[in-house]
Write a structure and sequence with these properties.
This protein is of the alpha/beta class. Helices cover about 50% and strands about 10% of the residues. It has helices at about 25-40, 80-95, 100-110, 115-125, 140-145, 165-175, 185-190, 215-225, 240-255, 285-295, 310-315, 330-340, 345-360, 360-380, 380-395, 400-415, 420-430, 440-450, 470-480, 485-540; strands spanning about 10-15, 40-50, 65, 70-75, 130, 150-155, 175-180, 200, 230-235, 260-265, 280, 300, 320-325, 340-345. Strands 3-4-2-1-5-6-7-8 form an eight-stranded mixed beta sheet, with helices on both faces. Strands 11-10-9-12-13-14 form a six-stranded parallel beta sheet, with helices on both faces. Helix 4 runs parallel beside helix 5 (about 140-145) and helix 8 packs across helix 10 (about 285-295).
Length: about 550
């Protein structure tokens, strides 16, 4: 598309980039890149050589490429400590949180590419913006840092432990801008994560206005499905709550429709699907998947953690109703706004929705039609691109000094949290104490953390004066003019004690380090003396020359 306006040059940093994307976040970003390219923007994709996000391999050759008309540069994937990564991921999943130093380690051991980040650092002057995402991989965080204030995040946030980590909020607070997929995702970031960055917009994923229709009868004939059909498409993994879907369907089939079929489309890992009536079909070609949507009485998205959910939109494009989990704010919002399906939270609500779709086909078709209109009105590509272009224009506009200082102040304040303090102290101890003699960092820091709690939440002000003592104590507790003696002085005293303890411990570490250094110096001098003596003996034993 020709244009007389100089449009910005934009780099996309995406973990992998293939002609046919699999993940929803990657599909979303690929759509943005292609649409911007078609509308005259100078777009380039920076990605890794991996073709499998689970493997983090280097299956594709590094260097320049073109994928569906978009210029692509591939860089080698780093070989990190995979075992360490999964240990940290499991700890985060089970405990629901990680200390700050471990959050950084998790990102460091995640999918990364030092070559890609180095290239971006060298070439950042060539781009007006760097669009990065999703937030699940360390590469996005490293690229956002390298972007030097030009990063625009498409985080695709889920309400999961990783999203609540401090490193995620820090990255979003210092971003040039944030593109959310749904209002519910933005509300989650604001209300639950505490995000204050005002430079954000809701864009969402786009779909063709003239999406081809599937042939449901062809799918049923091909896969020999005659009774009611419930469909799921996506990764068949525990994180998508597919296990609950299978269990609910098994119970439903036993009680109501023994001829019902649950078709699961997608790659499977870690989910037992061996049940009567459950058919795991693997990945299907795009045309066959459209047929599956059209054939289904109901499409079910059981995931509790979605930032958009492309698959429910694809079902609506085939005018079929959907069933989503009531705990997922984003998909629940889509259904409420469109009236294109139902929500479920337990077996009773699941069974009621599935029975309604099967036993009331006309009402189910009407919900499917409403879903189709919802997609056309809000997520057809012309509509989505208008939001995307408008958001970029707004996010790339020149900022006032007040806006710059406000955002910088929020990000700076986050650097003075207790998490940051503990991380810096841990780094200092690791640097001061040789690794082979180092104590457990937690063991070393626990007493300091205990003393660092200087807020005195349980401190009580009392007075020994008779009769009027309670009144004096009340005034001291409630009047700011009386804060210093009963409160501030106690804090200062405890802070001084803490500082003394800190200096003493670090002094011991430093003294030990110095002693080790002197011991090594003595050993070096001894070895040098021994070498000189040996050389002298060698020289003395040589026969004289005539």
């Amino acid at each position: 598309m020709s244009t007389s306006i100089q449009l910005p040059r934009i780099a996309f940093v995406i973990p992998r980039y293939l002609p046919e994307m699999v993940g929803g976040a990657e599909t979303l970003l690929q759509g943005y890149a292609e649409q911007l390219r078609e509308h005259g923007y100078l777009v380039e994709v920076l990605t890794t050589c991996t073709d499998q996000l689970g493997a983090w391999n280097n299956a594709l050759p590094p260097g320049p490429d073109v994928v569906r008309g978009v210029p692509v540069r591939r860089f080698l994937t780093d070989i990190g400590n995979r075992r360490r990564y999964w240990q940290l991921a499991e700890e985060l999943s089970s405990a629901g949180q990680l200390e700050y130093r471990k959050q950084r380690a998790l990102l460091h051991e995640s999918l990364n590419s030092a070559e890609l980040v180095s290239y971006l650092q060298r070439s950042i002057g060539d781009y007006e913006a760097v669009i990065v995402g999703p937030y699940a991989f360390g590469l996005a965080f490293a690229a956002a840092q390298a972007a030097q204030g030009k990063a625009i995040w498409v985080p695709c946030l889920h309400d999961e432990p990783l999203a609540h980590c401090t490193v995620v909020r820090e990255a979003l607070e210092e971003a040039r801008g944030i593109l959310f997929n749904a209002e519910a995702e933005q509300c989650f970031a604001r209300e639950q994560l505490g995000l204050a960055n005002p430079h954000a917009a809701v864009v969402g994923c786009g779909f063709p206005s003239d999406a081809p229709r599937g042939d449901g009868a062809r799918f049923r004939a091909q896969h020999q499905v005659s009774g009611p059909l419930l469909l799921y498409a996506g990764r068949i993994i525990p994180e998508k709550n597919v296990g609950q879907l299978v269990s609910l369907f098994e119970r439903y089939r036993q009680r109501f429709h023994p001829d019902a079929t649950l078709a699961l489309v997608g790659e499977r890992s870690g989910v037992d699907v061996e049940r009567p009536g459950v058919r795991a079909l693997g990945r299907l070609p795009a045309e066959t998947l459209r047929d599956a949507y059209a054939a289904a009485d109901l499409f079910c998205q059981p995931s509790r953690n979605e930032s958009f959910s492309i698959v429910i939109m694809e079902s609506w494009l085939q005018q079929r109703p959907v069933l989503v989990h009531d705990d997922c704010a984003v998909t629940r919002e889509h259904v409420a706004r469109s009236q294109g399906g139902w929500t479920f939270s337990d077996f009773e609500s699941f069974a009621a929705a599935l029975s309604a779709a099967i036993d009331q086909p006309q009402a189910a078709a009407e919900r499917g039609r409403l879903g189709y209109e919802y997609v056309q009105q809000h997520y057809a590509w012309p509509v989505v691109f208008g939001r995307l272009a408008g958001a970029l224009e707004q996010l790339l506009a020149e900022r006032t000094l007040v806006e710059q200082l406000s955002q910088r102040g929020i990000r700076r304040a986050l650097e003075f949290t207790r998490e940051h303090y503990q991380a810096r102290l841990g780094d200092l101890v690791e640097e001061a104490v040789p690794e082979e003699r180092r104590l457990s960092i937690d063991q070393l820091l626990t007493p300091l953390r205990h003393q660092a709690a200087i807020g005195l939440p349980q401190h009580r002000v009392e007075s020994r004066a008779r009769l009027i003592g309670p009144i004096i104590a009340w005034l001291r507790r409630n009047l700011t003019s009386h804060l210093k003696e009963p409160y501030v002085d106690v804090i200062v005293q405890q802070q001084a004690s803490f500082n003394a303890e800190l200096i003493e411990r670090l002094q011991h570490a430093l003294e030990y380090s110095i002693r080790e250094q002197r011991r090594m110096e003595r050993q070096i001098r001894l070895l040098e003396s021994q070498l000189k003596a040996a050389q002298h003996r060698t020289d003395s034993s040589e026969p004289p020359t005539s």
